[in-house]
Putative metal-dependent hydrolase
Amino acid sequence: MRLEIASTYSENGYQDYELHLNEHTGTHLDAPIHFIKDGIAVHEIPVHCLCGPLVVLDIRDRVLHNHDATVIPDDILRWEKKYGKIPSNAIIIMNSGWGKYFGDNNAFVNMDKQGIPHFPGWSKTAVEFLLEARSVLGIGVDTLSLDQGASEDFPVHNTWLSNGLWGLENVANLDNIPPSGAFLFVGASKVYGGTGSPVRLIAVI
Amino acid sequence: MRLEIASTYSENGYQDYELHLNEHTGTHLDAPIHFIKDGIAVHEIPVHCLCGPLVVLDIRDRVLHNHDATVIPDDILRWEKKYGKIPSNAIIIMNSGWGKYFGDNNAFVNMDKQGIPHFPGWSKTAVEFLLEARSVLGIGVDTLSLDQGASEDFPVHNTWLSNGLWGLENVANLDNIPPSGAFLFVGASKVYGGTGSPVRLIAVI
């Protein structure tokens, strides 16, 4: 991401910048069209699909020993045992503890000697479980990708987005959010035709 | 604003774009630093200052006869007669009816033969009244600028932003929002050092 000066106090009376960035920079949303050619773009996601009860799935313990750990159906069932059934129109975000590496690109991408990244993500079985048995608006991760870093064919992206649903990547500050009971507003920029966009997430407790 | 293809389905398995845009494109926020050299940038606005009760001031009638109309203290007092005192930490947005020109650049900027734009905005006296006598987080307009189009020295920007407060420009869909009773979430992208950013506004009624 690059900021280029467009106006200056001395010449214009105010300052501003031209922004140059990939749609998928920082905390951002993946729209269905990111992977699915005829999927909807970010501006076509109805606003009521961008607000919902927030569920945080904590897999930090498993990640300590396994950087390729994924959210599995058991993580969802374990959450439900404690907090009750996943609420309707939920937004479910993985807290893998990876957020502590924000700003340290090497640790965040965690590439091995073969150039393969290693960081946690969702499993295909977990999103298939959600699609079949729960009512969910979107899923998210505190890592670079809905799929685990080592994935080559993005089964989670393809499965989830092909159902017209969206994902959030690089979600920050999850340690400050209770596992259950918060409500999330996903402030996605309405870029026409965009495959995604930077978002401001506001959780209300 | 320009979208440049960065990845393609055939080469990468997914598509995305590089975005090139000014910070002050579409519905967007002006941070204090936009006009005030030592003011805070968009990433420094605390999240609790981006959520508040929404007040919509309807000046559509006056704008029909005067494209240079501004929000004046009387508009605020008239709103208060109907709906009670402006709530604490309010976000107050002008509905001038100008939103109907979105997408028609000539009508939206409305330049005269001398090249001077004509569209409504706030008056300096109205924002001075708010600063002295009410508790407000931010103000907004459904036009290009907090100041009326014909302004050359931006008294509203300079007065309001120098108090560490922010503004919203090009706010859409105000006709669907009640004058009183909605609550607004301002999803400003957290661009480090940014003088503003595109925002997704979500009003809850």
